[in-house]
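Researcher: Next sequence.
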Amino acid sequence: MDEIKDQIKQFSSEYLEEIRKIRRHFHENPELSCEEVLTAEYICNKLDEYNIPYTKGIAGTGVVGLIEGKNPLSRNIALRADMDALPVKEENDVVYKSKIREKMHACGHDVHMACLLGAAKILNKLKDDFEGSIKLIFQPSEETYPGGAICMIQEGVLKSPETIHVIGQHVINTLEAGKVGMRSGPYMASTDEVFLSVKGKGGHAATPDQIIDPILIASHIVVALQQIVSRKANPLVPTVISFGRIIGEGRTNVIPDEVLISGTVRTYDETWRKTVHTTIKHMSASIAESMGGSCDVRIAHGYPFLNNDEDLTSKIRSLAKDYLGENNVVELEPRMTAEDFSYFANEVPSCLYRLGIRNEKKGIISNLHSSTFDVDESCLKTGMGLMAFLAFQILSSL
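Model: Next structure:
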């Protein structure tokens, strides 16, 4: 193990400048979900350069490379990176600032792709030293429902050869560069979108007796639905109901006919998830009816909660401590954010871990999805090296 570890660390140092340039290319040229055409082309060009065969056009713009070791059909694992950027205008003053207005890699997917390409280059150098094969999944559309993961699965990405495990890494701004974080079991929440249409009877604000006020009804509904979390949810099951948008197109003296409300529901339990949906619909309709109005409810079913396989995550934690040192591997708290990597985890035992990118001295502290998000690029060395080491050792242990 030590010999392989030393080789991977050496390759990671040698390739760092190249992978930094790749990351900056992705950052300067972001593409939104389902639009990752040039991103995919660039990835294919790099895989050609590394002499790694691939299939493109999966789930639209997805790319899947394949590194074959000895007896390639004997076993297979996959490494995954997402490709899409966000509709965010970058505010950073850096040489690699996004060249495309209102688009930005504000969630670190540029880092994910660059690290996977670095890991691919390393693993391809070592393919005569392991048995089996390694898939390289470059996945589109993580940020937009239904997500690229489920589409790639439906198109057979985990077949031919049959994939035993999927491993992914995702940046996080609360960990310093050089560190990684793990959590076994439930780690990230399911996510559903809730859309309410509250209807009443509009009119003059000075004649409330002649109207049915949908703004007042909507206010009661929003407040009441918070009681689902405080009074109906099991306190041991994390649950979030939040509303981020309320539109009532009235005026200071005009009550509208309709109010639109949009929000999100997140939890860790699939049975409770269904109950929440039913409860939201029943409570919203009942409150509106009791006040003389009506409420139509539509719930868009999103990603399932992410469950990191206990055994695989335990192996990855142990290997990460060996590669990075025990002090550089931390335990993570559960998160109410969501990830379509959960679809892979529903199919085969999988693990998504976190890659630290923070550097307070350099002012790199901004949260994901913000206009000032950035990374300490030393994380690229950690990311590509650890991913290559994990893939090699996990595959060898099967």
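Model: The radius of gyration is 24 Å. The mean pLDDT is 97.
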